[in-house]
Design a protein that fits this description.
It is built from 1 helix and 7 strands; from the N terminus they run αβββββββ. By secondary structure, the chain is α+β, with helices and mostly antiparallel strands. The radius of gyration is 20 Å and the shape is globular. InterPro entries: Secre_tail.
Length: 118
Amino acid sequence: MWKTSTLILITVFSLLSFVGKAQDRTLPSNNPEGGRQIVKLYPNPATNIINFEIQQHNNDRMYDLIVYNFLGKKIDQIKSISSRTTVNLDNYYNGLYIFQLRDQRGNLVESGKFNVVK
């Protein structure tokens, strides 16, 4: 009897360990340009401001940053950013937000999410 219960416990702990490791992995953001992340955002979760920094940028390339709430409603749009921008979160509520970085032709460059906690 103790062998069976020991085997069950080992199996359960192994599965819990596997599930925990799978949840610890961060999913890469959607990036059609080769799989590498272009946008670094911090702090996340954010309280008052959030910084978006474009890692791979050409000085002549400009992007639009569009922010949606988790229901899909457009909350903010910042046009013509090149390397770094700071977004003021005074008009944002607590919750998850989705951002899209688009080039000047409207093509999606990268998308991701961030959390606002107040």
